[in-house]
Structure formats: structure tokens, C-alpha cells
Design a protein that fits this description.
The chain is an alpha/beta fold. It is 31% helix and 22% strand.
């Protein structure tokens, strides 16, 4: 078992948490800098402290990963990213954690020696996305938290890439990177590190045969995860880096969790399964640090379940002050020191020589020739006392060897200076090996613009009734058909009908493409014109398919670099992200792209299922309602084919009043997304948009209560 290599990766929302993690024996730490981190409200480090942190980590032989795991806008990637990363890159930063494929491309081209870890925000759910990211230059994938042990094992067996997975801490209800709930409700985007966690609030559930009682209001609030007891299973599935969540937690919390997982990871590595036993007292120590209505083991052994959800208002364990104080004294108030050997050679008629050594690194400094003593000659004890005064340095003396001739005068000041010089040079020697040469910025974003003022209309549908309406509309160029809620045989007929009416027909791929999803995708029998792709797994799965491919909104192209990446990977058209405002869209390269101008915006895609949570699972796709504290109703569709739920905004997005502005964006397509609309509603809405956008007429319209999303407001 001893040849197994596992990394224990700790969170740090502050410099003190970073120190606590290393003192408690973490192998690596991930932390946010002043910008672009997914925890904008943590005590993130400025450049000076980040450089200090890199040296601190490297002195202890550990690694530091920087979170750059938010979506960046054009001006940010153009004007800030290089200048932000360059000093950290030169100083020896070990890796960056990235969500945005534009950021990924930019770093790969500008900082070629910097490892890139694909964030859990990329929703890596299988072999396809891991393979694609490996080929693109990623050294590690942080898997979606929803993956099972078997799915992790398949990635490990089929792709030569490091796997990092969460083992402890808070769980999102939504697949990470697929959530717009906080963004659309309050303007605080999870994709920009500012999630307000509306999923932790109470909701009423209504629908056919569905209603939650007063003790079951928190249906979107998962318990925290604790995997102490299944550490052997996780390691054997192929996970290399075991990641603790908690960049908003205290240093004492970080130290306490690291301490416990360090103990049991080492126990398994040294003793194997036969010697692996979790002490109930240790489990309680973790509970005493923090838990939300108890723990679950996450998704490793189940796809979803009632036992994973808090349901009632969160009750937190009372803080064990004695435990916190113990952790503080042990790991926070003082640093773990590096043991060094000190050797002094002080002989008559020879320059004094002091050597300090840590591991294989040895530094020797020389001073003046000592003079004979006229009064009290130096003793070995005198020399030892001064050389051991290592004070605030990262070192402590483990072994001392002194060769001293008798009768010599050795000034204390000289000894202190030699010690300081030796120790300083040793410290620099241990950190300088990580330094990199400066690089020149050579990648810039294209400012390419299209002059297109004539738009083509696309309609996406989720029912046969909706399809039957739009296929008869002469001005509809293409129809997108959802594989989620329409059966294979009906899809084949719809494609034939669309072609008979002179229209293109595309298949809308599922929101999440996990193991087994491909059995529902039948390119050889459908004869579709193309595919609307929602994630990296699908892009890789279909990469050799010659048909057109549209990257949906969830394959974020907030910046032109991201669009360029997807174009290089055979994507023919990208969809403008929902989180850009009108000014930002106008500054984007929109040539060949499309924009959703009507439809209920998907706010969350979850492996969790409220129907199952409320013990009402019947394996039939259906719709129910979540009602929040402001009495807003959010419709939810259950996709039993692919086993996930999609929560939609309470009001449809409608930008019909902004048609003149949108016509100047240089787009090729506008899209109407139909989900819950009746046939009559589909007909009326389509006609209004045709008149306004396609025929460019001044019309009177009554679209009903609606939202403009972020079109008129800037997302944080």
C-alpha cells in the first residue's frame, strides 16, 4: 500500500488558514487572490501576501494552487489577467484552477509552464470531458461532486490525468457551473464568485400529488459531506487529490478537518483496508467543528436521496470551544518549523565557517579569522546558544556540531551575523528553485465584428405540439428539438417533417451527459442537421460527427477567447451567455452566433430530485412548482431519462422591446426557447418576434409579465 500517492488538498480563505493547513500536514492548499476567485467574500490575498504565501508553501515542500475559477469578461481577460498572473507565475505558483475556457486558452498560450486544473465549475462528469481537457493541456480535472465511485474509476482507467474530488464540506444542490439562481434573482453570480445561496432558503412545493409539510421546506439545501469512512473507496477509485471545501471557514476549522483526514489517509496507506477503522470520537470531532443537520457521504454511492438533504431549517452544532482552542494553539498560533543541521568550524588562523543544512541543501558562510582571547575565551556552549537563536525564521535546530579551538575570542555580533546570513541564504535557496523567467504577453482578443443586420430565427421546443406550430412558420429557419422530453421515434418523424417544410432540425443534447446518456443519442438514424451542445462531454462525444454544432449558453463564451477555443473545436455557432448585459454583448465577437431573446431561463440543473426527496418518485418526467418566500413560482421539470431536475425562472425572458438594439449586435440568429408554452402561446409569441426582428416592423405587443434578465443590468 505504501506506493499509493494521494494529495490532501486544503482550503484557505486567508493567510492564517493557509498556515494552519500546512501546520496540520496538508499536501497542498488552494486559495484565491485579489480577483477572479469563486469566493469573492473570503479574506483573499493581495499580491504581496500571495508571493509570501508561495514561498511559505514551498519552504515546507508543499504546493499552492490559485483559484481563477470565475467567468471573465472581455475587458478583464484583456486588461487584467496577464498582469495579475505574471508576478505569481514568475515567483513559482504551482497551478491555477480554471472554469472559463477562454481563461484556459489564454493561460495555456501565455504561461506555458503553469499547470492548469479544470475546475469543478466545468462540470466534468465523464471520460469524454476529461479526455478533451487532457488534450487541451489540463494536468488535472476537478470532477463534478455528483459522480459515483464507478464513474471516477472509469475516468482514471481511461484518461491519463490527475483526478481531484471533494471529500468534505458543503455541497451545492446544482451541478457546479450550471447555476444561475443567485445571479438572476439578485444579481450575485455564482459564476463570478458571489453566490448568495438562495438554495439554502425555504420553498413550498406544489404539483400533482405533491406538497411538502412545514418540516420539509428546505428541499434544495444539502447536508454537508463527510467521507471519512469511505476514504479507501475513494482512493481506490483513482482519486489523486482529496479536496476539502471551506474557504469561508476559520483557520481552526481548516486545521481540524485536515488533521482528521491526514490521520485516516495515512492509516489506509500504511495499513490497508484490514487496518482501517474510524474512531467514532474522531467523527464527532469533525461534527463539533461544523455540520449542517448532520453529514452525508455525498454522491459517491448514491445518485441522489432524501438522506442527503437538510429538509428542515439548518441546525448547527454548538461550537466546542475547548476543541477550537486546542486547534488554535497547535496549528494557528505557531508554525511548524523545518529541522536544520548547524555546523560551526572555528579554528585559529582560519576564517570562521558556519554551515546550515536542510535536506540536501547546504549553505556555508565564512567570517573573519578569530583573534586570541585576552579575557574569557568562547566555549562550545556560547557558540551553540547563539547559533540556536533562530527566532522568527522558519527553521529550528535539529542537530548541532561545533569544532572550536581553545582560547579564541568570538564576538556575539559576528556569530549572529553569520547565522542570519546562512539562514537567509538557505531560505532563498529553498524557494528560488521554483522561480520562472519572465514572459511576454502575446495573445490578444480578436475584435472581429459582423455587420449582420438581418437575423435568422431559431425556435427550440420540448413538445410535439410546440413543434407542430413552429414548423408551419415560414420565417423560422431552424428548429431545435429536445432529446430530454421527446422519444426517439417522434424525434425522427419531427426531423423528417422539418426537412419537408424546408427547415433545418437540430437535436438539443441533455443538460448533463453522464455514463449511459449516449444510449439515448442516435445520430445514425435521426438524420439531424446538427446538435445543440450543453457541456464538454458532449463536445468530445460528437467531435467526429460532421453535422453542425451549436454551443449552448452553458458553454460560456463571456469573452472572445472562449469563443475562439470552441471554434477551434469544431463548434459552428455559440450562444450569448445570459449573464452579459447589452453593453457587454455589443463588445463581444458575435459573428455567426445566436442569442436567446425569449424563454424561461434555466436557473439550476441538479442531480437531486425534489420528487424523490419527498418520497414521490414515480420514474415519470413531470412538472412541479417551487414557491419562494416572496410567493414567486419556479417551475421544475424532472428529466427521468437522464435523471436530473431543471428549475426555471418564475418569469420568461423577453427582449422584444430591445429589437433595434439587438439588430446592431452583429448576430446571425435569435432564438426562442419554448418550454411550458401551449400551442396557441407559441404561435402568438413566434409571430410577434417574426414581425419585430425578422421583418423589423414597429408593432404593438403584449408579451405578458416578463423579465429582461441581465440585459439592462450588470452582473457582479
Amino acid at each position: 500500500m505504501k506506493d499509493i500517492k494521494v494529495e490532501l488538498l486544503a482550503p484557505a480563505g486567508s493567510y492564517d488558514s493557509l498556515r494552519a493547513a500546512i501546520n496540520a500536514a496538508a499536501d497542498a492548499v488552494y486559495i484565491g487572490g485579489s480577483v477572479f476567485g469563486a469566493r469573492a467574500f473570503a479574506d483573499n490575498l493581495d499580491e504581496e501576501n500571495m508571493l509570501k504565501a508561495i514561498d511559505y508553501i514551498h519552504l515546507h515542500g508543499k504546493k499552492l494552487y490559485l483559484t481563477v475559477n470565475t467567468l471573465l469578461k472581455n475587458d478583464e481577460i484583456r486588461n487584467q489577467l496577464f498582469e495579475y498572473l505574471h508576478p505569481l507565475y514568475k515567483h513559482g505558483l504551482d497551478a491555477v484552477i480554471v472554469q472559463d475556457m477562454g481563461v484556459f486558452k489564454f493561460i495555456r498560450e501565455n504561461f506555458p509552464d503553469l499547470d492548469i486544473h479544470a475546475s469543478t465549475q466545468m462540470t466534468v462528469t465523464g471520460v469524454y470531458s476529461a479526455k478533451m481537457l487532457k488534450e487541451a493541456g489540463a494536468t488535472r480535472v476537478v470532477t463534478a461532486r455528483e459522480l459515483s465511485l464507478d464513474e471516477l474509476k472509469k475516468i482514471h482507467d481511461n484518461v491519463d490525468i490527475e483526478i481531484e474530488s471533494f471529500i468534505h464540506g458543503a455541497l451545492c444542490y446544482c451541478y457546479s457551473g450550471q447555476c444561475l439562481l443567485s445571479s438572476m434573482l439578485g444579481g450575485r453570480s455564482g459564476n463570478r464568485g458571489r453566490c448568495a445561496q438562495p438554495c439554502r432558503l425555504p420553498y413550498d412545493v406544489t404539483g400533482k400529488n405533491m406538497k411538502n409539510n412545514d418540516n420539509e421546506k428546505y428541499v434544495l439545501s444539502p447536508k454537508d459531506m463527510c467521507t471519512l469512512e469511505i476514504i479507501p473507496d475513494i482512493i481506490e477509485s483513482g482519486v489523486y487529490s482529496m479536496k476539502i471545501e471551506g474557504r469561508m471557514k476559520s483557520p481552526e476549522y481548516v486545521a481540524g478537518v485536515v488533521e482528521m483526514y491526514r490521520k485516516y489517509i495515512d492509516m489506509y496507506i500504511s495499513q490497508g483496508r484490514d487496518g482501517f477503522r474510524v474512531d467514532e470520537n474522531d467523527y464527532q470531532k469533525l461534527t463539533s467543528l461544523y455540520s449542517r443537520n448532520g453529514f452525508s457521504q455525498g454522491y459517491y454511492k448514491q445518485h441522489n436521496g432524501r438522506n442527503m438533504i437538510s429538509l428542515s431549517k439548518a441546525t448547527y452544532n454548538s461550537v466546542n470551544e475547548e476543541r477550537i482552542n486546542t486547534l488554535h494553539d497547535k496549528y494557528v498560533s505557531q508554525d511548524k518549523k523545518l529541522p536544520i543541521n548547524i555546523n560551526a568550524v572555528i579554528k585559529a588562523e582560519m576564517p570562521m565557517e558556519i554551515s546550515v543544512q536542510y535536506g540536501d541543501v547546504k549553505i556555508t558562510v565564512k567570517g573573519d579569522i578569530p583573534q586570541p582571547s585576552n579575557n574569557r575565551p568562547a566555549t562550545v556552549e556560547d557558540i551553540s546558544k547563539q547559533l540556536k537563536k533562530l527566532g522568527n525564521t522558519p527553521f529550528e535546530c535539529a542537530d548541532m556540531d561545533i569544532e572550536l579551538d581553545e582560547g579564541l575570542f568570538v564576538p556575539v555580533k559576528v556569530l549572529n551575523e553569520l547565522r542570519r546570513n546562512g539562514v537567509n541564504r538557505l531560505e532563498h535557496s529553498l524557494t528560488d528553485i521554483y522561480r520562472r523567467n519572465s514572459v511576454q504577453k502575446f495573445t490578444d482578443i480578436s475584435d472581429k465584428k459582423s455587420d449582420t443586420t438581418y437575423l435568422k430565427l431559431v425556435c427550440s421546443v420540448e413538445t410535439k405540439e410546440q413543434f407542430d406550430v413552429v414548423v408551419r412558420k415560414a420565417d423560422v429557419e431552424s428548429i431545435y428539438v429536445s432529446v430530454d422530453f421527446i422519444s426517439d421515434d417522434i424525434i425522427k418523424d419531427m426531423i423528417d417533417i422539418a426537412h419537408g417544410n424546408g427547415k433545418k432540425c437540430f437535436i438539443i443534447m441533455p443538460y448533463i451527459f453522464r455514463e449511459g446518456s449516449q444510449k439515448y443519442i442516435n445520430p445514425n438514424i435521426w438524420n439531424a442537421d446538427g446538435y445543440v451542445i450543453k457541456n464538454l462531454d458532449e463536445m468530445e462525444f460528437l467531435k467526429d460527427n460532421p453535422d453542425e454544432k451549436v454551443a449552448d449558453y452553458s458553454m460560456y463564451t463571456m469573452n472572445n477567447e472562449a469563443k475562439s477555443f470552441y471554434k477551434e473545436n469544431r463548434i459552428t455557432s455559440c450562444t450569448v451567455p445570459y449573464e452579459l448585459n447589452s453593453h457587454e454583448i455589443a463588445g463581444r465577437d458575435n459573428a455567426g452566433d445566436q442569442m436567446v431573446v425569449y424563454g424561461y431561463t434555466p436557473l439550476m440543473v441538479s442531480a437531486g430530485c425534489v420528487k424523490k426527496t419527498l418520497k414521490l418518485c414515480d420514474n415519470n418526467s413531470s412538472t412541479y412548482i417551487l414557491r419562494d418566500r416572496y410567493k414567486k413560482n419556479f417551475k421544475v421539470k424532472t428529466s427521468c431519462k437522464f435523471c436530473y431536475n431543471v428549475i426555471y425562472n418564475s418569469l420568461p425572458l423577453s427582449l422584444i422591446s430591445c429589437s433595434k438594439q439587438i439588430l446592431n449586435f452583429g448576430l446571425d440568429y435569435i432564438r426562442l426557447n419554448f418550454t411550458f408554452e401551449t400551442a396557441d402561446e407559441v404561435s402568438d409569441i413566434t409571430d410577434m418576434y417574426i414581425e419585430s426582428f425578422i421583418h423589423q416592423k414597429e408593432i404593438s405587443y403584449d408579451i405578458g409579465e416578463h423579465t429582461k434578465g441581465h440585459f439592462k443590468r450588470k452582473v457582479d
